[in-house]
Amino acid sequence: QKEVEQNSGPLSVPEGAIASLNCTYSDRGSQSFFWYRQYSGKSPELIMFIYSNGDKEDGRFTAQLNKASQYVSLLIRDSQPSDSATYLCAVNSYGQNFVFGPGTRLSVLP
Amino acid sequence: GAGVSQTPSNKVTEKGKYVELRCDPISGHTALYWYRQSLGQGPEFLIYFQGTGAADDSGLPNDRFFAVRPEGSVSTLKIQRTERGDSAVYLCASSLNPGEETQYFGPGTRLLVL
After folding, report:
1. For residue B67, how many other CB atoms are within 10 A of its CB?
2. What is residue A82's three-state secondary structure?
3. Which terminus of chain A is more solvent-facing, meaning fewer CB atoms within 10 Å of its CB: N or C?
4. Residue A43 is nearest to which of B41, B42, B106, comparing CB atoms?
5. Is some CB atom of chain A closer than 8 A to the CB atom of B49?
Protein backbone atom coordinates (compact mmCIF):
# COMPACT_ATOMS: atom_id res chain seq x y z
CA GLN A 1 0.00 0.00 0.00
CA LYS A 2 1.36 3.36 -1.03
CA GLU A 3 1.91 5.67 1.92
CA VAL A 4 2.88 9.28 2.40
CA GLU A 5 3.97 10.39 5.84
CA GLN A 6 4.23 13.82 7.39
CA ASN A 7 4.61 15.10 10.93
CA SER A 8 1.21 16.37 11.98
CA GLY A 9 2.68 19.29 13.90
CA PRO A 10 1.89 21.89 14.82
CA LEU A 11 5.13 23.38 13.63
CA SER A 12 5.55 26.85 15.09
CA VAL A 13 8.01 29.37 13.67
CA PRO A 14 8.42 33.09 14.32
CA GLU A 15 7.54 35.55 11.61
CA GLY A 16 10.43 36.03 9.19
CA ALA A 17 11.98 32.63 9.90
CA ILE A 18 12.36 29.68 7.55
CA ALA A 19 9.72 26.96 7.92
CA SER A 20 10.83 23.47 6.89
CA LEU A 21 8.16 20.87 6.11
CA ASN A 22 9.06 17.27 5.42
CA CYS A 23 7.43 14.33 3.69
CA THR A 24 8.45 10.73 3.02
CA TYR A 25 6.79 8.29 0.64
CA SER A 26 6.84 4.54 0.28
CA ASP A 27 6.37 3.96 -3.46
CA ARG A 28 9.78 4.12 -5.12
CA GLY A 29 8.05 4.34 -8.50
CA SER A 30 6.45 7.68 -7.71
CA GLN A 31 7.14 10.29 -10.33
CA SER A 32 5.43 13.51 -9.32
CA PHE A 33 5.43 15.32 -6.02
CA PHE A 34 3.16 18.13 -4.96
CA TRP A 35 2.75 20.52 -2.07
CA TYR A 36 -0.69 21.89 -1.29
CA ARG A 37 -1.73 24.49 1.27
CA GLN A 38 -5.08 24.15 2.99
CA TYR A 39 -6.57 26.83 5.18
CA SER A 40 -9.05 25.74 7.79
CA GLY A 41 -12.43 25.02 6.22
CA LYS A 42 -11.13 25.50 2.69
CA SER A 43 -10.06 23.14 -0.07
CA PRO A 44 -6.42 22.43 -0.89
CA GLU A 45 -4.62 24.81 -3.25
CA LEU A 46 -1.47 23.91 -5.13
CA ILE A 47 1.74 25.65 -4.07
CA MET A 48 4.19 23.87 -6.30
CA PHE A 49 5.22 20.55 -7.79
CA ILE A 50 8.54 18.90 -8.49
CA TYR A 51 9.48 15.98 -10.73
CA SER A 52 13.29 15.87 -10.67
CA ASN A 53 15.84 15.42 -7.94
CA GLY A 54 17.17 18.66 -6.51
CA ASP A 55 15.66 22.00 -5.65
CA LYS A 56 12.92 24.01 -7.31
CA GLU A 57 12.32 27.58 -6.22
CA ASP A 58 9.21 29.69 -6.65
CA GLY A 59 9.24 32.98 -4.80
CA ARG A 60 9.52 32.31 -1.08
CA PHE A 61 8.95 28.58 -1.59
CA THR A 62 11.55 25.94 -2.37
CA ALA A 63 10.72 22.28 -2.93
CA GLN A 64 13.47 19.73 -2.50
CA LEU A 65 13.31 16.18 -3.83
CA ASN A 66 15.57 13.24 -3.07
CA LYS A 67 14.23 10.14 -4.80
CA ALA A 68 16.97 7.88 -3.44
CA SER A 69 15.86 8.72 0.09
CA GLN A 70 12.19 8.93 -0.92
CA TYR A 71 12.00 12.32 0.70
CA VAL A 72 10.51 15.63 -0.38
CA SER A 73 10.50 18.86 1.56
CA LEU A 74 9.13 22.37 1.35
CA LEU A 75 10.98 25.40 2.65
CA ILE A 76 9.15 28.66 3.23
CA ARG A 77 11.44 31.65 3.57
CA ASP A 78 10.48 34.84 5.38
CA SER A 79 7.43 33.12 6.89
CA GLN A 80 4.37 35.29 7.34
CA PRO A 81 1.35 34.82 9.62
CA SER A 82 -0.71 34.34 6.44
CA ASP A 83 1.33 31.19 5.77
CA SER A 84 -0.31 29.58 8.81
CA ALA A 85 -2.20 26.63 7.35
CA THR A 86 -1.98 22.87 6.88
CA TYR A 87 0.53 21.78 4.24
CA LEU A 88 -0.28 18.60 2.37
CA CYS A 89 2.28 16.51 0.52
CA ALA A 90 0.93 14.46 -2.40
CA VAL A 91 2.61 11.87 -4.58
CA ASN A 92 1.62 10.11 -7.77
CA SER A 93 2.74 8.28 -10.87
CA TYR A 94 1.46 9.00 -14.34
CA GLY A 95 -2.02 7.63 -14.86
CA GLN A 96 -2.40 6.65 -11.25
CA ASN A 97 -4.18 8.21 -8.37
CA PHE A 98 -2.74 10.79 -6.00
CA VAL A 99 -1.79 9.74 -2.49
CA PHE A 100 -1.88 12.49 0.11
CA GLY A 101 -0.16 12.67 3.44
CA PRO A 102 -2.03 13.69 6.59
CA GLY A 103 -0.66 17.22 6.46
CA THR A 104 1.51 19.33 8.75
CA ARG A 105 -0.05 22.26 10.58
CA LEU A 106 2.16 25.33 10.40
CA SER A 107 1.73 28.25 12.75
CA VAL A 108 3.69 31.43 12.05
CA LEU A 109 3.81 33.57 15.16
CA PRO A 110 3.79 37.38 14.76
CA GLY B 1 -12.48 30.71 -16.52
CA ALA B 2 -14.58 29.04 -13.87
CA GLY B 3 -13.00 26.66 -11.45
CA VAL B 4 -14.27 23.33 -10.18
CA SER B 5 -17.72 23.65 -8.67
CA GLN B 6 -19.48 21.26 -6.32
CA THR B 7 -23.06 21.08 -5.16
CA PRO B 8 -24.47 21.10 -2.62
CA SER B 9 -21.96 22.87 -0.42
CA ASN B 10 -23.50 21.26 2.63
CA LYS B 11 -25.71 18.22 2.97
CA VAL B 12 -27.35 16.90 6.12
CA THR B 13 -29.08 13.55 5.90
CA GLU B 14 -30.28 10.78 8.11
CA LYS B 15 -28.67 7.41 8.49
CA GLY B 16 -29.89 5.02 5.83
CA LYS B 17 -30.76 7.68 3.26
CA TYR B 18 -29.37 8.04 -0.26
CA VAL B 19 -27.33 11.09 -1.30
CA GLU B 20 -25.88 12.41 -4.52
CA LEU B 21 -22.99 14.82 -4.68
CA ARG B 22 -22.25 16.68 -7.88
CA CYS B 23 -18.97 17.91 -9.35
CA ASP B 24 -18.57 20.19 -12.36
CA PRO B 25 -14.90 20.19 -13.43
CA ILE B 26 -12.96 22.86 -15.25
CA SER B 27 -13.97 22.88 -18.90
CA GLY B 28 -11.69 20.70 -21.00
CA HIS B 29 -10.22 18.78 -18.09
CA THR B 30 -10.29 15.09 -18.93
CA ALA B 31 -9.35 13.73 -15.51
CA LEU B 32 -11.68 14.00 -12.53
CA TYR B 33 -10.97 12.81 -9.00
CA TRP B 34 -13.12 12.28 -5.94
CA TYR B 35 -11.64 12.40 -2.45
CA ARG B 36 -12.99 12.21 1.05
CA GLN B 37 -11.41 14.23 3.83
CA SER B 38 -12.09 13.73 7.51
CA LEU B 39 -11.12 16.28 10.14
CA GLY B 40 -7.39 16.39 10.71
CA GLN B 41 -6.63 14.04 7.82
CA GLY B 42 -5.40 14.48 4.30
CA PRO B 43 -7.69 13.82 1.34
CA GLU B 44 -8.36 10.11 0.86
CA PHE B 45 -8.62 8.98 -2.75
CA LEU B 46 -11.94 7.43 -3.77
CA ILE B 47 -12.14 7.23 -7.57
CA TYR B 48 -10.64 8.78 -10.65
CA PHE B 49 -12.17 9.19 -14.11
CA GLN B 50 -10.38 9.53 -17.38
CA GLY B 51 -13.11 10.78 -19.70
CA THR B 52 -16.27 8.81 -19.09
CA GLY B 53 -14.67 5.73 -17.61
CA ALA B 54 -13.48 5.06 -14.10
CA ALA B 55 -9.74 4.55 -14.49
CA ASP B 56 -9.27 3.63 -10.85
CA ASP B 57 -12.03 3.00 -8.31
CA SER B 58 -9.85 1.22 -5.79
CA GLY B 59 -10.49 3.86 -3.14
CA LEU B 60 -14.24 3.37 -2.91
CA PRO B 61 -14.71 1.95 0.60
CA ASN B 62 -17.56 -0.45 -0.23
CA ASP B 63 -20.40 -1.08 -2.66
CA ARG B 64 -22.56 1.64 -1.10
CA PHE B 65 -20.40 4.15 -2.97
CA PHE B 66 -20.70 4.64 -6.70
CA ALA B 67 -19.75 7.39 -9.11
CA VAL B 68 -20.56 8.20 -12.71
CA ARG B 69 -19.41 10.61 -15.36
CA PRO B 70 -21.65 9.77 -18.31
CA GLU B 71 -20.60 12.53 -20.71
CA GLY B 72 -17.04 12.99 -19.58
CA SER B 73 -17.73 16.25 -17.81
CA VAL B 74 -20.00 16.46 -14.75
CA SER B 75 -19.65 13.65 -12.24
CA THR B 76 -21.99 12.43 -9.53
CA LEU B 77 -20.89 10.56 -6.43
CA LYS B 78 -23.70 8.43 -5.06
CA ILE B 79 -23.85 7.02 -1.56
CA GLN B 80 -26.53 4.50 -0.65
CA ARG B 81 -27.71 3.63 2.86
CA THR B 82 -25.58 6.35 4.40
CA GLU B 83 -23.87 5.69 7.71
CA ARG B 84 -22.65 8.15 10.34
CA GLY B 85 -19.09 7.22 9.41
CA ASP B 86 -19.67 8.64 5.92
CA SER B 87 -19.71 12.14 7.41
CA ALA B 88 -16.79 14.04 5.88
CA VAL B 89 -15.93 16.65 3.30
CA TYR B 90 -16.12 15.21 -0.20
CA LEU B 91 -13.69 16.93 -2.51
CA CYS B 92 -13.65 16.84 -6.26
CA ALA B 93 -10.64 17.80 -8.36
CA SER B 94 -9.92 17.94 -12.05
CA SER B 95 -6.80 18.05 -14.17
CA LEU B 96 -6.13 18.62 -17.83
CA ASN B 97 -4.53 15.20 -18.19
CA PRO B 98 -4.27 12.37 -15.71
CA GLY B 99 -1.38 11.83 -13.37
CA GLU B 100 1.38 14.21 -14.22
CA GLU B 101 -0.67 17.36 -14.48
CA THR B 102 -1.64 19.36 -11.44
CA GLN B 103 -5.16 19.05 -10.14
CA TYR B 104 -7.50 21.82 -9.10
CA PHE B 105 -9.87 21.28 -6.21
CA GLY B 106 -13.45 22.35 -5.82
CA PRO B 107 -14.76 23.83 -2.57
CA GLY B 108 -16.06 20.48 -1.36
CA THR B 109 -19.38 19.18 -0.10
CA ARG B 110 -19.68 18.82 3.66
CA LEU B 111 -21.79 15.75 4.34
CA LEU B 112 -23.24 15.15 7.77
CA VAL B 113 -25.08 11.91 8.44
CA LEU B 114 -27.18 12.04 11.59
Report:
1. 22
2. helix
3. N
4. B106
5. no
